[in-house]
Design goal:
The protein is of the alpha/beta class. It is built from 7 helices and 15 strands. β1, α2 and β2 form a beta-alpha-beta unit. α2 packs parallel to α4.
Length: about 375
C-alpha cells in the first residue's frame, strides 16, 4: 500500500510501550547450517535450499522459544505493549564446510549469498510461521538480514544484496499496510563481501553500490499501526540514512512532519551513533549487533537509548533493566561459531528482554 501524506503526518499509535527482545547470536564468521528440526512448538519450515531452510527453521524455533520463555514477562500479554524482536545482520548467510573451517568466505564463491529470489521465499515462510500464531500478537520482528546475489552478468562482477526483513505479527485490528517489508542495505562495508573491484558497482543502474542509491529514497521509513519507524542495517546507521530521510521528509512537509516514534538497527559491528539518532524527543532507538571477532571474541552487544532533544543526546538504558535467558544447547537453537571456540570460551547465545516495558515516549525535563 503506498505511503500517503496523512501516514507521514500521523503518529497516534495505540501502543504506549515496547518490550525489547534482543537475539544475541554471533554472525560475523561463516557458520554451518547444522541439522535443525522444529522445536518449542514451531511449525516445520520448507524451503528449496537446505542451508536456508535450516537457518530459517532455527530462527523460527528461537522465536517460538522466546515467546514461551518470556510468556509471563511484564507487558508480554498487554495489547498496548509492542513486542520488538531483533536478530543481527548476516543471520541468513550461506556457508560451505570449507568456508566454516577456514572462518572466511572464499573468493571463488558468492560470499555467503543465496540466489536473489530466495529473499522472497524466505520472507513468505517467516511471515506464515509467525502471522498464523497468536503468540506473536502485537509483535514486530526484524529477522536480521539475508545475503543474496543477482545473476552475474560478467565474471567476477557480483551484484550483491544485503536485505533486512521486517515482519508484523497479528493484530486485533490489522491496518492495510504491507504485512512485511524487505529493505536493502544502502552502503557496502568491507565485511559485506568481496573487494570493491569485484562488485558490479560501476553500472549506475545497479541495485547495490558504494554510493547511496538514489532509487532507495525514504525506503527506511515504515508506517505501521499508526507509528513511524526507521529501520537501518549497520553501516547505513553510521551514514545517517534515516536521519537524511527524515530531513528530506521535513523539507517536503515542513513542520507538519512528525518525528520518528522508534528507530531500529540490525548490525554486525555497529553501536548507536549519536549523530544518526532520528527519533523524536523522549523516544527510543534499539540496536542488536552480531559482531564477535577472533581478535576480540566476545558476546555481541545490544543497545537501547532514549533521545533528549534539549541536549541532543541519547542516554542508553542501563543493562540492569534487562534479563538474559540462554538458549538450549542444541543445533535446533544455536549456531556452531568458530568450530565451537565461541562456546568453549564460555560465551552464550540467547535472548535479552526488558524486565518491564519501556514507555514508547517520555517527556524529558
Amino acid at each position: 500500500m503506498p505511503i500517503t501524506t496523512q501516514d507521514m503526518l500521523q503518529n497516534a499509535s495505540g501502543y504506549t510501550a515496547i518490550l525489547p527482545l534482543s537475539y544475541m547470536v554471533p554472525t560475523f564468521y561463516p557458520t554451518p547450517p547444522g541439522t535443525v528440526h522444529p522445536s518449542s512448538g514451531a511449525p516445520l519450515i520448507r524451503l528449496d535450499d537446505p542451508d536456508l531452510q535450516a537457518r530459517a527453521q532455527r530462527l523460527v524455533n528461537v522465536l517460538y522459544w522466546t515467546a514461551s520463555t518470556y510468556q509471563n514477562q511484564d507487558g508480554m500479554s498487554d495489547s498496548r505493549t509492542l513486542k520488538v524482536f531483533i536478530a543481527p545482520e548476516f543471520y541468513f548467510r550461506k556457508a560451505s564446510r570449507q568456508e566454516t573451517d577456514q572462518a572466511r568466505f572464499l573468493r571463488d564463491t558468492t560470499f555467503g549469498s543465496y540466489p536473489e529470489h530466495a529473499r522472497y521465499a524466505l520472507s513468505e515462510v517467516l511471515y506464515a510461521a509467525t502471522q498464523n500464531s497468536p503468540l506473536f500478537r502485537d509483535w514486530v520482528i526484524v529477522a536480521g538480514t539475508v545475503c543474496s546475489v543477482l545473476p552475474m552478468q560478467e565474471p567476477h562482477r557480483l551484484n550483491l544484496l544485503n536485505t533486512a526483513i521486517m515482519l508484523r505479527g497479528s493484530r486485533a485490528r490489522l491496518d492495510e499496510s504491507v504485512p512485511y517489508i524487505l529493505m536493502e542495505k544502502h552502503y557496502i562495508s568491507h565485511i559485506d563481501g568481496p573487494p570493491e573491484d569485484w562488485h558490479a558497482n560501476l553500472d549506475p543502474s545497479t541495485t547495490y553500490s558504494f554510493q547511496l542509491n538514489p532509487d532507495q529514497h525514504l525506503d527506511n521509513l515504515i508506517y505501521w499501526d499508526r507509528m513511524s519507524v526507521g529501520l537501518e542495517v549497520c553501516l547505513d546507521h553510521a551514514k545517517q540514512v534515516v536521519v537524511n530521510a527524515m530531513n528530506t521528509l521535513g523539507q517536503t512537509l515542513g513542520p507538519q512532519a512528525n518525528a520518528l516514534d522508534l528507530q531500529l538497527v540490525t548490525s554486525c559491528g555497529m553501536a548507536i551513533v549519536q549523530q544518526a539518532v532520528a527519533v523524536g524527543d523522549g523516544s527510543l532507538i534499539f540496536l542488536t549487533d552480531g559482531m564477535s571477532h577472533l581478535q576480540r571474541l566476545q558476546e555481541p552487544i545490544f543497545e537501547i537509548g532514549r533521545f533528549n532533544a534539549a541536549t541532543n543526546t541519547t542516554t542508553l538504558i542501563d543493562p540492569s533493566a534487562f534479563q538474559f535467558t540462554e538458549l538450549p544447547v542444541h543445533d535446533d537453537y544455536r549456531v556452531d561459531y568458530l568450530q565451537g571456540l565461541y562456546s568453549k570460551k564460555g560465551l552464550r547465545q540467547g535472548v535479552w528482554a526488558a524486565k518491564s516495558p519501556l514507555p514508547l515516549h517520555t517527556s524529558n525535563p
